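Issue: copy button drops trailing tokens. Both records pasted manually instead:
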Amino acid sequence: MNNKVKWGVLGVAKIAVEKVIPAMQQVANCEVAAIASRDLHKARAAAGRLSIPKSYGSYEDLLADPDIDAIYNPLPNHLHIPWTIKAAEAGKHVLCEKPISLTVDEARSLLEVRDRTGVKIQEAFMVRTHPQWIGAQDLVRQGRIGVLRSMTGYFSYFNRDPANIRNVPEYGGGALMDIGCYLIHTSRFIFGARPDRVSAGIDRDPEMGTDRMTSFIMDFDRGSIAGANPWGGHSIGTCSTQAAPYQRVHIVGTAGRIEIEIPFNAPPDRPCRIFVDDGSSLFGQGVEVVEFPVCNQYTIQGDLFSSAIRGEAEQAVSLEDSVENMSVIDTVFRSARTAAWETV
């Protein structure tokens, strides 16, 4: 009996055809069975290149295919909610790219859709199940760096193309939605809590209107953080779509720190490294390098969500977790407007 989850893909987005689909094709319990585009020629070209059996010239035709169990939605941000809802109402489980919505109210609407249709809906935060992030969280919980006090993260790239969807405000473009969401998600993951309040500043591109650089401080109350923490903590993040490409995360406690070398675009062709520093020397003598074997975070994501669909595992990222992440994103935007601390 073939127990593979049969997947359909909405659109021919670069992340889908270059990263996610090839990775999911390596999963034993997955079969990427169909791909759709509003341009049938594009769908057929992608299907031929990736050896996908079926191609469709509309998203509706793909959703009507009774053989498809689950949908991967990598469409532009403003299409995440409408097509996730349509897929769920067609009886398909949905793995939707981040951010799952444009506002927390939109994200919250998916809870009713999920409960009404009985399907599983998950935001595609592939970092959540990468061994380096699980390893970092384990070290924090074990007290390896003492009491967790702060986390700082930076994530940037340079793109000023006005035609690119990441630079169109109406499509949900901008740094915070595209990459800052990772900084918020992983901070909540490491602290094991939702921040209580946020202070943020935004620099907008004067021509395109998107946030080209966003910085924020998230304040975690001591009573909400997982584990014993008598002081609470802060997470500070900066994301930019108009800066040199770079990414790094530092997690600092009272007795040491953890540095994640490539936290978000973890390479699938070489080991990942995190550095655990006991704080004994500013010149690095107290640093231990922890190396994680080669893996593909999109393969892991597809495997685990397919297992959840089959009832063999829990979802790695719950829909409730995604609603919380969007509530923080909303608060960052609100704080930037008011120039004041805002409660999440």
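Record 2 (pasted manually too):
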Amino acid sequence: MHTSASFSATVRVRLDDSPGTFARFAAAVGEAGASLGAIDIVRVERSTKVRDVTVQAADASHLDDIVAAVSDLDGIEVLHVSDRTFLMHLGGKIEIVPRNPVKTRDDLSMAYTPGVARVSRAIADDPSKVWTLTAKQHLVAVVTDGSAVLGLGDIGPEAAMPVMEGKAMLFKEFGGVDAFPICLATQDPDEIVAAVKAIAPGFGGINLEDIAAPRCFEVESRLQDELDIPVFHDDQHGTAIVVLAALLNALKVVGKELGDVRIVTTGCGAAGTAVTKVLLAAGATSIVGCDEHGALYEGRPGLDAAKLEYAALTNPERLQGTADEMLAGADVFIGVSVPGAVSRAGIAAMAPGAIVFALANPQPEIDPEVVEDIAAVIATGRSDYPNQINNVLAFPGVFRGALDVRARTITHEMQIAAARAIAEVIGPDELAADYIVPSVFDRSVAPAVARAVSEAAVAGGVARVQLDVTQ
């Protein structure tokens, strides 16, 4: 049973002040399959002690079982249980703070009226000055309609808010980018596009998040056409960038080249389509995508518009069959679909030096333990296995780099540059089968990605300003 801080609680207990009482508490926690964390004394009473004990569980029901187990013990009274994840979210996780103090009349007169009027007039006379005289230069809108939130699905804009706040935290922590959640009470593409266009003047970039396919494709495409700031659907392109980075390093481990390998994917939705497009742009030549009915190919009946486009880009030989059948002789499997999408037998039929990216989260397409003896390199979307494919490696640096040169859009070349920068953080002497992507806490990643993205934007002619070579 895998315990996690995301299912942890601080349990306040009153224990009889006698030998062995806490040992019985700890034993009950252990027998319930939980892990003990911090142990703090709150106060000492005449014949009892009150302690705060942090426990980690596997899920919410497991947490309830742990509390029930210790509540039944003689000499132990559970006073209160505080879910640590909910405590982190109390009052929200982000706030707006001024960059300059307002302590005197002079400060007020410059920050607001009457002095601010001169700044507004300067922008009205020269709109390009909005980039230097406002927060636009470091501000991103994180926009969702709440229709595809994590693995929860269509839970609505209010319930999506904690996720968008979390995204904003990561933007700031890893990229130095200020981000603000915009949760829209509509799932109509026309209304989403209109709303984002209406707020766009105040932002330097738009990060689309947790919008269901195929609506996300239309929304992103239209906004990219109609706005002159970067529009980036992270569920698609953030995933694609990190997958490419990981694959570039995995191929080095097994001694193969991207242009030579045969790739099979499962999942042809938003993430799967973006992964395929960026791999093709980076030099991949042989990709077969599979959905629940098998391989996609031109002419297959019943394909929707998105899958028709996917089929036109891939599988030129029009191979037919299940995902397992397509894996025979393949070099790379990339899953962005559902648990059980492929089997051990399918992976076993792959070419020597097989690379398996099973990225469905929280349950991979195939558990790493099932294929660890037959796959040369394995990556997942989970933090409890090596080689986690995590978008945090990409989006903070991508937007930092785009904002630094005031990019008008984010091109495939910028995405590929980001992927190569992530891959190159790991030096040749460090690269290994269980270390093909850097840690999300490696502080060298975002600056490296930002620099690469800025340079690619300038080279591609989508930057408003040149990169500051002194950075």
